[in-house]
Write a structure and sequence with these properties.
By secondary structure, the protein is mostly beta strands. Helices cover 9% and strands 31% of the residues. Strand 2 and strand 3 form a beta hairpin. It is globular and about 45 Å long.
Length: 179
């Protein structure tokens, strides 16, 4: 059910200013608890909705009007690298892109795929390794580094879930793209 109109959306501590969209992204936990992506007060992807999977979970939002245009998971284990690369290359201009990892993405992610995320404002994707957790909100065609990015490094000495690091989350108010 929708939150009351006076409440902050996506469980944020405060309401977003005009011309901003509320969002919250949570990575998976281990290989068991799925990730969750909330945009503008609506959970778009989650384990409960049964629309998340191992690899990259991505929501594409029209940055001008805030309409969710696509939500997909790119299976890094079983998927073809060429299909994943084609998907990433086909993300349209003016899109807000919300991304979280689940399980592991390092097995098949290529330098070219990483560069696509760099082009959306990521500064951490180049460092993501085996079983690291990564959450990111960026936009296609931006020159700016996104402030909405977090990573948890998988380290056997510090991992919370045996072979996996802690869950990471990021949320905030993403600016609308103004035409």
């Amino acid at each position: 059910s929708a939150a009351p109109t006076n409440a902050p959306k996506c469980s944020l501590a405060r309401k977003c200013p005009i011309d901003h969209f509320a969002f919250h992204i949570r990575s998976g936990a281990g290989a068991v608890v799925g990730p969750r992506i909330c945009f503008d007060g609506r959970i778009v992807m989650s384990g409960l909705l049964n629309n998340v999977g191992p690899g990259l979970n991505i929501v594409q939002v029209n940055g001008l009007n805030g309409k969710v245009e696509r939500s997909d998971y790119l299976n890094i284990q079983d998927g073809k690298q060429s299909d994943i690369l084609t998907y990433l290359k086909n993300i349209k201009p003016e899109m807000i892109v919300l991304v979280t990892t689940f399980d592991d993405i390092a097995t098949k992610i290529t330098e070219e795929m990483r560069e696509i995320f760099v082009g959306m404002g990521s500064t951490m994707i180049q460092s993501v390794k085996h079983r690291d957790n990564w959450v990111f909100a960026g936009a296609t065609g931006t020159k700016d580094k996104s402030p909405f990015e977090k990573m948890a490094v998988s380290d056997p000495k510090t991992n919370v879930y045996e072979e996996w690091p802690e869950m990471v989350e990021v949320g905030g108010c993403f600016p609308r793209k103004l035409a």
